[in-house]
């Protein structure tokens, strides 16, 4: 049943949802970002709250206002490192974590303390430096993989962990093959796979997703449909697993 909004079947469950894109600062006015709108993560937070869950929504850059619901506590973050810090404080209490945020894989190695200028005049005796800067990047931590690792170390089977996979597919592999590989690599309980690209999914109101399960159960595909419907389908799968 995907129309469970009035069932309150998630009452008492503590759900953490991340949504939106991270922004990785270059200087005080510039950042590296991505096209995530945050709509799918926000829809999951709303659906979970409507079904009775206590929700913490950890939101990066989002294209719509954060939801106004008494059971949704929204925390704003900007960068991947801020997201990691915020998650660390939420984990011990969470029953379910849904990582719908688009987390930057890399960040600039250095953040300039003042605005980067077009030309550099280092020495008045020489011509100004007109060369273009090269931005060096370093890897961000994989927050989802860290959650799975911390759970394994803790020896308890909570929280239930859901990842998202933004895949375009390539010449050798379909979106679903890449999703299966990613699920195995990440070790989360579910991986929600969708197809992304300019104008496809990112920023759109409809979505087609396939939910892959680590336990080898049959994948669940839904769509094209609203992000609200995708959210309820996902929560149905989670609720069924948690009851086992
Ligand atoms: N994720 C994360 N921390 C990162 C990067 C991604 O927690 N530094 C999470 C995302 O929130 C998502 C999942 O990992 O739930 C998969 O993100 P995706 O970008 O598809 O996978 P990556 O492992 O980063 O692989 P790649 O981008 O190379 O496909
Ligand atoms: Ca990535």
Automatic annotation (TrEMBL):
Name the Enzyme Commission number(s) assigned to this protein: 4.1.1.36, 6.3.2.5
Q: Which UniProt keywords apply?
A: Decarboxylase, Flavoprotein, FMN, Ligase, Lyase, Magnesium, Metal-binding, Multifunctional enzyme
Instruction: State which pathway it belongs to.
Output: Cofactor biosynthesis; coenzyme A biosynthesis; CoA from (R)-pantothenate: step 3/5; Cofactor biosynthesis; coenzyme A biosynthesis; CoA from (R)-pantothenate: step 2/5
Residue positions annotated to bind CTP are: 105, 115, 141-144, 164, 182, 186
Q: Which cofactor does it need?
A: Mg(2+); FMN
Which stretches does the entry tag as region Phosphopantothenate--cysteine ligase?
A: 15-244
Q: What's noted on cofactor binding?
A: Binds 1 FMN per subunit.
| Reaction equations catalysed | N-[(R)-4-phosphopantothenoyl]-L-cysteine + H(+) = (R)-4'-phosphopantetheine + CO2; (R)-4'-phosphopantothenate + L-cysteine + CTP = N-[(R)-4-phosphopantothenoyl]-L-cysteine + CMP + diphosphate + H(+)
Q: Where is the DNA/pantothenate metabolism flavoprotein C-terminal domain?
A: 10-240
The family line of this record is: In the N-terminal section; belongs to the HFCD (homo-oligomeric flavin containing Cys decarboxylase) superfamily. In the C-terminal section; belongs to the PPC synthetase family.
Purpose: Catalyzes two sequential steps in the biosynthesis of coenzyme A. In the first step cysteine is conjugated to 4'-phosphopantothenate to form 4-phosphopantothenoylcysteine. In the second step the latter compound is decarboxylated to form 4'-phosphopantotheine.
This protein is called: Coenzyme A biosynthesis bifunctional protein CoaBC
**Upper lineage:** Bacteria, Bacillati, Actinomycetota, Actinomycetes, Micrococcales
């Amino acid at each position: 049943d995907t129309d469970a909004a009035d069932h309150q079947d998630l009452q008492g469950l503590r759900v953490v949802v991340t949504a939106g894109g991270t922004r990785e600062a270059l200087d005080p006015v510039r950042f590296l970002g991505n096209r995530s709108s945050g709509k799918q993560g926000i829809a999951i937070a709303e659906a979970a709250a409507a079904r009775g869950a206590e929700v913490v929504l950890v939101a990066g850059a989002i294209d719509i206002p954060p939801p106004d619901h008494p059971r949704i506590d929204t925390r704003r973050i900007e960068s991947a490192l801020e997201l990691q810090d915020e998650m660390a404080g939420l984990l011990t209490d969470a029953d379910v974590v849904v990582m719908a945020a688009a987390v930057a894989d890399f960040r600039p190695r250095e953040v300039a303390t003042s605005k980067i200028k077009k030309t550099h005049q280092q020495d008045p005796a020489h011509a100004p430096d007109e060369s273009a800067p090269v931005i060096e990047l370093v890897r961000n931590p994989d927050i989802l993989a860290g959650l799975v690792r911390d759970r394994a170390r803790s020896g308890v089977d909570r929280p239930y962990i859901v990842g998202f996979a933004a895949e375009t597919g390539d010449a050798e592999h379909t979106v679903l093959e890449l999703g299966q590989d990613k699920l195995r690599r990440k070790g989360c309980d579910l991986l929600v796979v969708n197809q992304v690209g300019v104008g496809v999914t990112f920023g759109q109101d409809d979505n087609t997703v396939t939910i892959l399960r680590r336990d080898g159960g049959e994948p669940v595909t839904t769509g094209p449909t609203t992000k609200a419907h995708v959210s309820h389908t996902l929560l149905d799968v989670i609720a069924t697993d948690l009851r086992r």
